């Protein structure tokens, strides 16, 4: 019985198979983490989980009013034109002439008690992207295990990808230059920040 010699071509064949199969299997998770990562990177300029729309309106009633004039029933009447009366949670006065009403789901209504001018801030959860972000924040033990497997698989995908090509396109040619550049860029950010 002769021993089969393991050549570079043999290893590259297996690297290609492993690289391809893990890439296909984890492509959905890669997209989820990439999209939520972009949103979370820009959370200073855009809320990654909610859309916020502000609407100016005139509250119903006779103004000016004082805190003593306002009952929960009156607040409910103010919410009717924006169809939020069923979503009332509570209200308070951040200042003597300001009424703030909190609504289920995070929306709110702020009323100037002198003029009746109001700002309705409607908060709506971003469909799909908010769920992506939820996964990115690691929602539980099962996801932690899956994420760890995913992280190890990314290392395997990367290492197998490095050695798939040989020659001028491989790690000893153009691929090596690209690999080195990809390592240097994060190191520079670490050192310069």
Characterize this entry briefly.
The protein is an alpha+beta fold. 47% of the residues lie in helices and 19% in strands.
Descriptive keywords:
alpha+beta; 193 residues
Describe what this molecule looks like in 3D:
Helices cover 47% and strands 19% of the residues. It is an alpha+beta fold. It folds into two domains: 8-46 and 128-162, no CATH class; 50-125, no CATH class. Strands 1-5-4-3-2 form a five-stranded antiparallel β-sheet, covered by helices on one side. The chain is elongated and about 95 Å long.
User: What is the N-to-C succession of helices and strands?
Assistant: HEHEEEEHHH
C-alpha geometry: elongated
Structural class: alpha+beta
Spans of at least 5 consecutive residues with low confidence: none
Number of helices: 5
Distance between the termini: 60 Å
Number of domains: 2
Strand order of the largest sheet: 1-5-4-3-2
Mean pLDDT: 92
Query: What helical percentage do the residues reach?
Result: 40-55%
Q: Which percent range describes the beta-strand content?
A: 15-25%
Radius of gyration: 28 Å
Biggest sheet statistics: 5 strands, antiparallel
Number of E-type strands: 5
């Amino acid at each position: 019985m002769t021993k089969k010699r393991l050549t570079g071509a043999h290893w590259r064949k297996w690297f290609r198979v492993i690289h391809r199969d893990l890439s296909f299997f984890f492509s959905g998770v890669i997209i989820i983490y990439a999209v939520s990562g972009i949103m979370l990177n820009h959370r200073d300029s855009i809320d990654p989980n909610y859309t916020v729309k502000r609407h100016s309106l005139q509250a119903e009633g006779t103004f000016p009013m004082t805190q003593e004039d306002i009952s929960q029933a009156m607040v409910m009447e103010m919410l009717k034109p924006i169809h939020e009366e069923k979503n009332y949670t509570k209200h308070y006065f951040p200042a003597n002439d300001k009424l703030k009403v909190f609504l289920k789901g995070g929306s709110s209504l702020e009323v100037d008690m002198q003029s009746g001018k109001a700002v309705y801030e409607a908060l709506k959860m971003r469909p799909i992207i908010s769920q992506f972000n939820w996964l990115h924040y690691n929602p539980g033990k099962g996801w932690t295990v899956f994420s760890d497997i995913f992280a190890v698989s990314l290392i395997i995908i990367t290492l197998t990808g490095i050695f798939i090509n040989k020659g001028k396109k491989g790690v000893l040619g153009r691929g090596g230059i690209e690999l080195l550049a990809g390592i240097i860029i994060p190191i520079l950010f670490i050192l310069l920040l």
